[in-house]
Amino acid sequence: MEDHGKIIIKLDALLKASGLSKNKLSHRAEMQRSQINNYCQNRITRLDIDALARICNTLGCTLNDLLEYIPPENEEDK
Question: pLDDT at residue 68 above 90?
Answer without folding.
Answer: yes
